[in-house]
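Incident log, structure service

09:12 report received: a user says their structure output differs between two submissions of the same chain.
09:20 pulled the input from the user's history:
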Amino acid sequence: MSKAVQFHELGGPEVLKIEDWQAPVLEKGEVLMDIAAFALNRADILFFQGLHYSLPTLPSRLGSEACGTIIAVGEGVDRFAIGDKVSTIPFANARYGMHGEQALMHQDFLAPWPEELSATEATSIWMQYLTGYYPIVDIGKVGKGDFVLVTAASSSAGLGAIELANDAGGCVIATTRSGAKSDAILAAGAHHVIATEKEDVAERIMEISDGKGVRVIYDAVGGSLYDRYTDALAEDAIVFLYGLLDDRPAQVDVVKMVRKNAIIHPYSMFNEVRHPDRLERGMAYIVERLKDGRFKPRIDDHVFTMENAVDAYRYMLTGEQVGKIVVRVSD
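09:34 re-ran on a clean worker, output below:
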Protein backbone atom coordinates (compact mmCIF):
# COMPACT_ATOMS: atom_id res chain seq x y z
CA MET A 1 0.00 0.00 0.00
CA SER A 2 1.40 3.40 -0.99
CA LYS A 3 0.38 6.99 -0.21
CA ALA A 4 -1.30 9.33 -2.70
CA VAL A 5 -2.83 12.80 -2.75
CA GLN A 6 -6.60 12.34 -3.21
CA PHE A 7 -9.82 14.28 -2.83
CA HIS A 8 -13.41 13.19 -2.17
CA GLU A 9 -15.15 16.49 -2.87
CA LEU A 10 -14.52 19.62 -4.89
CA GLY A 11 -13.05 22.73 -3.30
CA GLY A 12 -9.79 24.36 -2.30
CA PRO A 13 -6.61 22.72 -0.96
CA GLU A 14 -8.51 21.82 2.22
CA VAL A 15 -10.20 18.94 0.32
CA LEU A 16 -6.84 17.27 -0.42
CA LYS A 17 -5.81 14.31 1.72
CA ILE A 18 -2.72 12.09 1.78
CA GLU A 19 -4.27 8.62 1.87
CA ASP A 20 -3.49 4.96 1.32
CA TRP A 21 -3.75 3.94 -2.32
CA GLN A 22 -3.92 0.43 -3.74
CA ALA A 23 -2.85 0.09 -7.36
CA PRO A 24 -5.58 -1.42 -9.56
CA VAL A 25 -5.02 -4.23 -12.05
CA LEU A 26 -3.01 -2.85 -14.95
CA GLU A 27 -4.88 -2.46 -18.21
CA LYS A 28 -3.40 -2.92 -21.67
CA GLY A 29 -0.47 -0.60 -22.29
CA GLU A 30 -0.20 0.58 -18.68
CA VAL A 31 2.75 0.57 -16.30
CA LEU A 32 3.04 1.07 -12.54
CA MET A 33 5.74 3.45 -11.34
CA ASP A 34 7.54 4.13 -8.09
CA ILE A 35 7.54 7.93 -8.05
CA ALA A 36 10.75 9.84 -7.31
CA ALA A 37 9.24 13.33 -7.67
CA PHE A 38 6.11 14.99 -9.00
CA ALA A 39 5.40 18.51 -10.21
CA LEU A 40 2.41 20.82 -9.87
CA ASN A 41 0.58 22.73 -12.58
CA ARG A 42 -2.20 25.28 -12.49
CA ALA A 43 -4.45 22.71 -14.16
CA ASP A 44 -4.18 20.53 -11.05
CA ILE A 45 -5.81 23.23 -8.96
CA LEU A 46 -8.56 23.73 -11.53
CA PHE A 47 -9.08 19.95 -11.47
CA PHE A 48 -9.76 19.60 -7.74
CA GLN A 49 -11.86 22.79 -7.84
CA GLY A 50 -14.00 21.23 -10.59
CA LEU A 51 -13.15 24.03 -13.04
CA HIS A 52 -10.96 22.09 -15.46
CA TYR A 53 -12.46 20.81 -18.72
CA SER A 54 -11.48 17.30 -17.59
CA LEU A 55 -13.72 16.43 -14.63
CA PRO A 56 -12.80 14.03 -11.80
CA THR A 57 -14.65 10.91 -10.75
CA LEU A 58 -14.70 11.07 -6.94
CA PRO A 59 -12.72 10.01 -5.03
CA SER A 60 -9.94 11.09 -7.33
CA ARG A 61 -6.19 11.41 -7.62
CA LEU A 62 -4.68 14.33 -9.49
CA GLY A 63 -1.57 15.53 -11.27
CA SER A 64 0.03 14.77 -14.61
CA GLU A 65 3.79 15.24 -14.16
CA ALA A 66 6.12 12.81 -12.40
CA CYS A 67 9.29 10.82 -12.83
CA GLY A 68 10.25 7.47 -11.40
CA THR A 69 11.02 3.80 -12.01
CA ILE A 70 8.74 1.23 -13.62
CA ILE A 71 7.95 -1.62 -11.22
CA ALA A 72 5.22 -3.48 -13.17
CA VAL A 73 3.96 -3.61 -16.75
CA GLY A 74 0.61 -4.56 -18.22
CA GLU A 75 -0.25 -6.55 -21.31
CA GLY A 76 1.01 -5.03 -24.55
CA VAL A 77 3.71 -2.83 -23.04
CA ASP A 78 6.51 -3.00 -25.61
CA ARG A 79 8.35 0.31 -25.30
CA PHE A 80 9.45 0.08 -21.66
CA ALA A 81 10.40 -2.60 -19.14
CA ILE A 82 10.56 -3.08 -15.38
CA GLY A 83 13.48 -1.05 -14.02
CA ASP A 84 13.34 1.70 -16.66
CA LYS A 85 13.56 5.27 -15.35
CA VAL A 86 10.93 7.44 -17.01
CA SER A 87 9.17 10.78 -16.88
CA THR A 88 5.54 11.40 -17.79
CA ILE A 89 4.15 13.48 -20.61
CA PRO A 90 1.00 15.28 -19.40
CA PHE A 91 -2.28 14.58 -21.12
CA ALA A 92 -5.92 14.85 -20.12
CA ASN A 93 -7.06 11.59 -18.52
CA ALA A 94 -8.40 11.48 -14.97
CA ARG A 95 -7.35 7.80 -14.52
CA TYR A 96 -3.68 8.72 -14.39
CA GLY A 97 -3.26 10.94 -11.33
CA MET A 98 0.50 11.10 -10.73
CA HIS A 99 0.76 12.79 -7.33
CA GLY A 100 1.75 10.08 -4.88
CA GLU A 101 4.35 7.43 -4.05
CA GLN A 102 3.18 5.18 -6.89
CA ALA A 103 1.13 5.86 -10.02
CA LEU A 104 -0.24 4.35 -13.20
CA MET A 105 0.59 5.70 -16.64
CA HIS A 106 0.03 4.54 -20.21
CA GLN A 107 3.23 3.82 -22.11
CA ASP A 108 2.23 6.20 -24.92
CA PHE A 109 2.78 9.12 -22.53
CA LEU A 110 6.11 8.12 -21.07
CA ALA A 111 9.59 9.23 -22.03
CA PRO A 112 13.01 8.10 -20.85
CA TRP A 113 14.31 10.06 -17.86
CA PRO A 114 17.22 12.07 -19.34
CA GLU A 115 20.36 11.01 -17.51
CA GLU A 116 21.57 14.61 -17.39
CA LEU A 117 18.71 15.62 -15.09
CA SER A 118 17.98 15.20 -11.39
CA ALA A 119 14.59 13.91 -10.21
CA THR A 120 13.28 17.43 -9.57
CA GLU A 121 14.35 18.43 -13.08
CA ALA A 122 13.15 15.27 -14.82
CA THR A 123 9.63 15.73 -13.47
CA SER A 124 9.56 19.31 -14.77
CA ILE A 125 10.33 18.89 -18.47
CA TRP A 126 7.28 18.24 -20.52
CA MET A 127 4.60 20.66 -19.36
CA GLN A 128 7.23 23.39 -19.07
CA TYR A 129 8.51 22.99 -22.63
CA LEU A 130 5.81 21.24 -24.69
CA THR A 131 3.22 23.86 -23.67
CA GLY A 132 5.36 26.55 -25.29
CA TYR A 133 6.82 24.45 -28.10
CA TYR A 134 3.68 24.29 -30.23
CA PRO A 135 2.72 28.01 -30.13
CA ILE A 136 6.26 29.35 -30.41
CA VAL A 137 8.02 26.84 -32.66
CA ASP A 138 5.57 24.50 -34.39
CA ILE A 139 2.61 26.81 -35.09
CA GLY A 140 3.90 30.34 -34.48
CA LYS A 141 7.25 29.68 -36.20
CA VAL A 142 9.07 32.39 -34.30
CA GLY A 143 12.25 33.55 -36.00
CA LYS A 144 14.83 36.29 -35.99
CA GLY A 145 13.24 39.73 -35.72
CA ASP A 146 9.98 38.52 -34.17
CA PHE A 147 8.81 40.08 -30.92
CA VAL A 148 7.17 37.54 -28.59
CA LEU A 149 4.96 38.51 -25.65
CA VAL A 150 5.05 36.05 -22.73
CA THR A 151 2.55 36.81 -19.95
CA ALA A 152 2.77 35.46 -16.38
CA ALA A 153 6.41 34.98 -17.23
CA SER A 154 7.59 33.73 -13.82
CA SER A 155 5.50 30.55 -14.12
CA SER A 156 7.25 27.39 -15.29
CA ALA A 157 5.40 27.59 -18.62
CA GLY A 158 6.42 31.23 -18.97
CA LEU A 159 10.08 30.53 -18.21
CA GLY A 160 10.07 27.61 -20.64
CA ALA A 161 8.57 29.86 -23.33
CA ILE A 162 11.34 32.41 -22.79
CA GLU A 163 13.95 29.73 -23.48
CA LEU A 164 12.07 28.47 -26.53
CA ALA A 165 11.63 31.94 -28.03
CA ASN A 166 15.26 32.86 -27.41
CA ASP A 167 16.44 29.63 -28.99
CA ALA A 168 14.28 30.37 -32.06
CA GLY A 169 15.77 33.85 -32.43
CA GLY A 170 12.89 35.94 -31.07
CA CYS A 171 12.99 38.97 -28.80
CA VAL A 172 11.05 38.25 -25.61
CA ILE A 173 8.86 40.86 -23.92
CA ALA A 174 7.68 39.37 -20.63
CA THR A 175 4.95 40.55 -18.30
CA THR A 176 4.57 40.23 -14.55
CA ARG A 177 2.17 41.98 -12.22
CA SER A 178 4.11 44.07 -9.72
CA GLY A 179 7.63 43.90 -11.07
CA ALA A 180 8.94 42.14 -7.95
CA LYS A 181 10.01 39.17 -10.08
CA SER A 182 11.52 41.25 -12.89
CA ASP A 183 15.13 40.42 -12.01
CA ALA A 184 14.41 36.68 -11.99
CA ILE A 185 12.60 36.91 -15.34
CA LEU A 186 15.46 38.87 -16.92
CA ALA A 187 17.94 36.36 -15.52
CA ALA A 188 15.92 33.61 -17.23
CA GLY A 189 16.53 35.28 -20.60
CA ALA A 190 13.71 37.78 -21.20
CA HIS A 191 14.93 40.86 -23.05
CA HIS A 192 12.35 43.20 -21.51
CA VAL A 193 9.86 43.02 -18.63
CA ILE A 194 6.63 44.99 -18.26
CA ALA A 195 4.99 45.35 -14.83
CA THR A 196 1.30 45.28 -15.74
CA GLU A 197 0.13 46.94 -12.51
CA LYS A 198 2.35 49.95 -13.15
CA GLU A 199 2.76 50.38 -16.90
CA ASP A 200 0.71 50.87 -20.04
CA VAL A 201 1.24 47.48 -21.69
CA ALA A 202 0.56 48.41 -25.33
CA GLU A 203 2.54 51.65 -25.10
CA ARG A 204 5.58 49.86 -23.65
CA ILE A 205 5.41 47.12 -26.29
CA MET A 206 5.42 49.70 -29.07
CA GLU A 207 8.36 51.52 -27.47
CA ILE A 208 10.37 48.33 -27.08
CA SER A 209 9.60 47.06 -30.59
CA ASP A 210 10.15 50.48 -32.23
CA GLY A 211 6.56 50.45 -33.44
CA LYS A 212 6.64 46.95 -34.91
CA GLY A 213 4.46 45.24 -32.27
CA VAL A 214 4.37 41.65 -31.07
CA ARG A 215 3.73 38.86 -33.58
CA VAL A 216 3.34 35.87 -31.22
CA ILE A 217 1.51 36.30 -27.92
CA TYR A 218 1.73 33.46 -25.39
CA ASP A 219 -0.95 34.45 -22.90
CA ALA A 220 -1.70 32.60 -19.67
CA VAL A 221 -3.79 35.44 -18.25
CA GLY A 222 -6.45 36.39 -20.79
CA GLY A 223 -9.35 38.40 -19.37
CA SER A 224 -8.67 42.10 -19.14
CA LEU A 225 -4.99 41.76 -20.06
CA TYR A 226 -5.92 40.77 -23.61
CA ASP A 227 -7.41 44.21 -24.25
CA ARG A 228 -4.27 45.90 -22.92
CA TYR A 229 -1.94 44.52 -25.60
CA THR A 230 -4.15 44.36 -28.70
CA ASP A 231 -3.18 47.90 -29.74
CA ALA A 232 0.39 46.61 -30.02
CA LEU A 233 -0.11 43.62 -32.33
CA ALA A 234 2.18 43.17 -35.31
CA GLU A 235 0.91 42.31 -38.76
CA ASP A 236 -0.29 38.68 -38.91
CA ALA A 237 -0.07 38.31 -35.13
CA ILE A 238 -1.21 35.10 -33.45
CA VAL A 239 -2.63 35.33 -29.93
CA PHE A 240 -2.40 31.99 -28.11
CA LEU A 241 -4.77 32.07 -25.12
CA TYR A 242 -3.79 29.07 -23.02
CA GLY A 243 -4.61 30.09 -19.44
CA LEU A 244 -7.30 31.69 -17.32
CA LEU A 245 -5.40 33.42 -14.53
CA ASP A 246 -7.86 36.28 -14.98
CA ASP A 247 -11.19 34.48 -14.69
CA ARG A 248 -13.01 37.20 -16.59
CA PRO A 249 -13.59 36.24 -20.25
CA ALA A 250 -11.53 38.08 -22.85
CA GLN A 251 -13.68 40.45 -24.92
CA VAL A 252 -12.43 40.05 -28.47
CA ASP A 253 -12.21 43.32 -30.42
CA VAL A 254 -12.80 42.10 -33.97
CA VAL A 255 -11.91 45.47 -35.49
CA LYS A 256 -8.44 45.51 -33.88
CA MET A 257 -7.82 41.94 -34.99
CA VAL A 258 -8.87 42.64 -38.57
CA ARG A 259 -6.65 45.73 -38.77
CA LYS A 260 -3.59 43.53 -38.17
CA ASN A 261 -4.87 40.39 -39.90
CA ALA A 262 -4.43 38.80 -36.49
CA ILE A 263 -6.00 35.61 -35.16
CA ILE A 264 -6.83 34.21 -31.73
CA HIS A 265 -5.93 30.59 -31.11
CA PRO A 266 -7.57 29.09 -27.98
CA TYR A 267 -4.84 26.66 -27.08
CA SER A 268 -4.13 23.60 -24.95
CA MET A 269 -1.03 21.45 -25.14
CA PHE A 270 -3.28 18.43 -24.51
CA ASN A 271 -4.84 18.92 -27.96
CA GLU A 272 -1.40 18.60 -29.56
CA VAL A 273 0.16 15.66 -27.69
CA ARG A 274 -2.76 13.34 -28.46
CA HIS A 275 -1.44 13.26 -32.05
CA PRO A 276 1.57 10.88 -32.08
CA ASP A 277 3.41 12.68 -34.89
CA ARG A 278 3.13 16.08 -33.17
CA LEU A 279 4.17 14.63 -29.83
CA GLU A 280 7.19 12.89 -31.34
CA ARG A 281 8.24 16.10 -33.11
CA GLY A 282 7.99 18.16 -29.94
CA MET A 283 9.82 15.60 -27.80
CA ALA A 284 12.71 15.31 -30.25
CA TYR A 285 13.12 19.09 -30.38
CA ILE A 286 13.20 19.42 -26.59
CA VAL A 287 15.40 16.39 -25.85
CA GLU A 288 18.06 17.66 -28.27
CA ARG A 289 18.22 20.96 -26.38
CA LEU A 290 18.19 19.33 -22.97
CA LYS A 291 21.14 17.17 -23.93
CA ASP A 292 23.29 20.01 -25.23
CA GLY A 293 22.37 22.32 -22.34
CA ARG A 294 20.40 24.93 -24.25
CA PHE A 295 17.35 24.13 -22.09
CA LYS A 296 17.46 23.73 -18.32
CA PRO A 297 14.22 23.17 -16.34
CA ARG A 298 13.51 25.98 -13.88
CA ILE A 299 12.63 24.78 -10.38
CA ASP A 300 11.23 27.00 -7.63
CA ASP A 301 13.43 27.27 -4.54
CA HIS A 302 10.68 25.71 -2.37
CA VAL A 303 10.85 21.92 -2.92
CA PHE A 304 8.30 20.01 -0.84
CA THR A 305 8.20 16.45 0.52
CA MET A 306 5.41 13.88 0.42
CA GLU A 307 4.56 14.60 4.03
CA ASN A 308 3.81 18.28 3.31
CA ALA A 309 2.59 17.85 -0.27
CA VAL A 310 -0.72 19.63 0.39
CA ASP A 311 1.25 22.74 1.34
CA ALA A 312 2.65 22.76 -2.19
CA TYR A 313 -0.82 23.45 -3.62
CA ARG A 314 -1.40 26.21 -1.07
CA TYR A 315 1.93 27.71 -2.08
CA MET A 316 0.95 27.68 -5.75
CA LEU A 317 -2.17 29.68 -4.95
CA THR A 318 -0.02 32.46 -3.40
CA GLY A 319 1.53 33.15 -6.80
CA GLU A 320 4.95 33.63 -5.19
CA GLN A 321 6.73 30.87 -7.10
CA VAL A 322 9.34 31.37 -9.82
CA GLY A 323 9.51 28.18 -11.87
CA LYS A 324 8.12 24.72 -11.29
CA ILE A 325 6.81 23.66 -7.87
CA VAL A 326 8.06 20.14 -7.15
CA VAL A 327 7.36 17.53 -4.47
CA ARG A 328 10.26 15.17 -3.94
CA VAL A 329 8.99 11.71 -2.92
CA SER A 330 12.22 9.71 -2.54
CA ASP A 331 15.97 10.34 -2.51
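09:41 both user submissions now match this output. Likely a transient worker issue. Closing.
09:42 reviewer note: Residues 36 and 68 are 5 Å apart (CA to CA). The mean pLDDT is 94.
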